[in-house]
Amino acid sequence: MLDVGRDAMASPGLTRLFATTAGEATDPAHPAHAYFRRRFDLMRTNNARAVRASRVAGLVRADVDPDALGRAWSPARRA
């Protein structure tokens, strides 16, 4: 996540373009809607997987819900 933040700071124009396109793509009629939907679903899955691995490694408490935290870390939160 830190690397992503550093990249975003190094390329503010690309970051702005991505954020604008992602926001516009929340409209189901937008041509990039399906792409961003898949991307954010994959992010939620990967985030939850990372939380599970961190629980096993003892870095995250056992009572933390990996799926809930995976959704919280994802830009497009969905139940």
Tell how many strands the DSSP assignment holds.
Answer: 0
Coarse morphology? flat
Unreliable residue runs: none
Secondary structural class: mainly alpha
* Rg, nearest Å: 15 Å
The helix content is 55-70%
Secondary-structure element order, N to C: HHHH
The number of helices is: 4
What does this structure look like?
This protein has 79 residues and is mainly α. The protein is built from four helices and no strands. The protein has helices spanning 2-10, 12-24, 33-56, 66-72. α3 packs across α4. The mean pLDDT is 87.
Provide a concise account of the structure shown.
The chain has 79 residues and is mainly alpha-helical.
Protein topology:
Blueprint: H1 2-10, H2 12-24, H3 33-56, H4 66-72
Helix pairs in contact: 3-4
Q: Which key phrases capture this entry?
A:
single chain; 79 residues; 4 helices; 67% helix; flat
